[in-house]
Amino acid sequence: MSLGMNKKKILIIDDEQINLDFFDVMLTRLGFEVIMASDGSEGLEKIKANSPDLIILDNIMPQLSGWELTKMLKQEDEFLKYRDIPIIMFSAMDTVKDKIEGFELGIDDYIIKPFNFSEVLARIRAVLRNHELSRQIVLREKRLALADSLNKSLIYLTEHLKIPVLGLVEASKALDVSDSKAVETFKEQVVVEAEQTLAALGGLEDTVRKLQESEGSMRKAELSLRELEERFREHFKELHNHIGESV
Amino acid sequence: MISDTKREVLRLFAEGREQYRKRNFEAALVKFKAAYDLDPKDEPSKIFGARCKAYMENPPGDGWDGVFQMTNK
User: Fold this and answer.
1) What end-to-end distance do the CA atoms of chain A give, in Å?
2) What does the pLDDT look like over A107-127, one tens digit per residue?
3) Nearest-CA distance from B10 to chain A in Å?
4) pLDDT of residue A38
5) Would you call A238 an interface residue with chain B, using a CB distance cutoff of 8 Å?
């Protein structure tokens, strides 16, 4: 599983070569892996081939438009695996209706052209950060569910241990030690109860071990919020040096 | 009468050409792109933008005089 900001893959879909070139140069310099597609259908192919972390999409393109591509990605079963990839859409049109339709389709951000590159970067950062946070929440939910299932096993075990142990206590209180047949029966009862208890404990031990293993691997993939912030800051620190030079 | 936008496009394009001549192709691309964003119909910015990318990948030789040599098509 890829962690934090290690070489995030960004797919740029735009029919204008100068836009592709510009984003390729700038985003590569900032440490992203840049994939490019010059129309919608090539874009869909590259989504499947590369499974990018973010898609930057031009709305107005010949053949397949940004809207149509987004609709396919979000609604068709063929793209189920890629449905959650965040999308930033560019458009030359600045109408409220377009923006609302975009957000309803499931895009994450909408930028009006002409745009300022530092604003675009800030938005890329915000979208990637939100997406990473959602991923972390899902991870934490899974860990919580694990802890919950462990709790349930423990409750089940303690409840089921209580009854045989209490039974043994009762039986020992009532036992007449001079009655050798009763002692023999009691001994058998102790053996049976002890074996069952040991088997239950063995089962619990296995469960705990399995849970710990999966929890360990989840923990490795989990970042604290502070770590997450630091990774993003680290990744974008070049931004400030960089913007000074541009337009 | 020349519009303010066109004046700005021309300024950015001139600055882009300046960087281009000095072989600062990345800085030139930023300027051409800014000019293109202001006026998406500005063909010269698009053409020079594409040349910047090509030269960043394959820098021109020492004797380069600023003239683009077609290497494909």
Assistant:
1) 38
2) 999 998 877 888 899 999 999
3) 14
4) 93
5) no
Q: What is the ipTM of this complex?
A: 0.73
Domain ranges of chain A: 9-115, 140-228
**Residue closest to A18 by CA, chosen among B18, B63, B31, B57:** B31
Distance CA A125, CA A232 (A): 7
Mean pLDDT for A197-202 is 82
Residue of B nearest to A115 (CA): B37
Domain range A9-115, its CATH number among 3.10.180.10, 3.30.572.10, 3.40.50.2300, 3.40.30.10? 3.40.50.2300
Q: How far is the C-alpha of A245 from the C-alpha of A130, rounded, in Å?
A: 28
C-alpha separations of A90 from A61, A67, A228 in Å: 11, 11, 27
Exposed e or buried b per residue across B1-10, where buried means at least 16 C-beta atoms within 10 angstroms of its C-beta: eeeeeeeebe
How many angstroms separate the Cα of A79 from the Cα of each of A47, A74, A85? 9, 7, 10
The residue type at B26: E
DSSP A140: H
- Please tell me which of the candidates A18, A26, A246 has its beta carbon nearest to residue B50: A18
Min Cα–Cα distance to chain A from B45, Å: 8
Q: Are B46 and A19 a contacting pair at CB < 8 A? A: no
